[in-house]
Amino acid sequence: MALSMAEIGEITFNIIYLTFIWMFVVKMFLKRKNVQKEDWKIASLMMLGFFLLAFGDTGHVGFRVVAYALGGLENNATLVGLGALSTAITVGILYMIILEVWRIQFNKPRDILYYILMGVGIIRLILFVFPQNEWGNVVPPLGFGLARNIPLMIQGLGVAILILRDAKAEGNATFKNLAYCIFVSYLFYTPVILFVRSVPALGMLMIPKTMAYMAMAWIVYKAYFSISSEKSITATPFIEK
Fold first, then answer.
1. 155 CB burial (10 A radius; 0-12, 13-18, 19+)
2. What pLDDT was estimated at residue 141?
3. Which domains does the chain have, with CATH numbers?
4. Model's pTM, two decimal places?
5. Distance CA 20, CA 223 (A)
């Protein structure tokens, strides 16, 4: 089956993305000795979060690449659906990890808001077991597609707002940039959730959405794992001039 230019572009980007994200996960692991002692807990959590992201997206975009090679997405809908399930699980856990990172970084208590955001993430995971998700379809049904993505939006945007508020208060550029990346990812992801069934071309917005996660991996690596990182983010956050 001949592939369209859009399909070739998607396959190419997916391969580049998986190579990039796994490269940074491996680099974080190999460079963990560069992490400041006081930053070790946050760095370890972020490394775990991006490992889960890479693992889940290997199922998501990786299975899409395999599906194209085996005759197209529609001919391998179950494979594509299982990949969507894998990334749905891991990205939710990623935001739980980022919420805990926010709490540690800014010395916040586990208050009612913290538990609400964690609870929303757990509720979303429970929603995945219902057959109405139709994981065997390439495009999820509108009703349950929204049902499982609204909690993700509450969780992710809630975490981003908390991070941005406290990072601005402390002048922490690293965490401000992480918050901006989360906002950008949702800016491009929201139209896909709402309108991709009627306008399939909107699926291309997943590329800039995914690039926001690539930027997050780079920011975390430079802040905690790079040998050029001379100062502890936790002890002495970088102040923007």
1. buried
2. 80
3. 5-225 (1.20.1070.10)
4. 0.89
5. 17
